[in-house]
Amino acid sequence: MIRWLEQLGNNILPTLHNHLRSNLIQILPECITATLDDLIENIFGDMRAGEVLNKAILTPLNEECHLIYERVLNRIDSPEMNYLVIDDIVSDDPEERNLYLIKFLNSLTPSGLP
Q: Would you say which domain of life the source belongs to (predicted)?
């Protein structure tokens, strides 16, 4: 499977041709699951917190990734932690601070943060 993933990443997998499209690839049977829960189980197994950090599910869109990882995080059996946030930017210029609405700041999901 590692060789297949390398070929996929390098865009050198053989393509399949049919009457509708010519840019199709064959997905390995072990890469196909019936449900998202099956996919999460296949990738992460028993969901030990330390092991989750070494695995990933890649998606074309960040929005899909956030939805999947929300489900992954809900399956981890560990204490939940709450963190305090400040809905403001740090700036000495009051006009600059007014440029960013709280609703906008709360909508940000920087990489590495839930």
A: Eukaryota
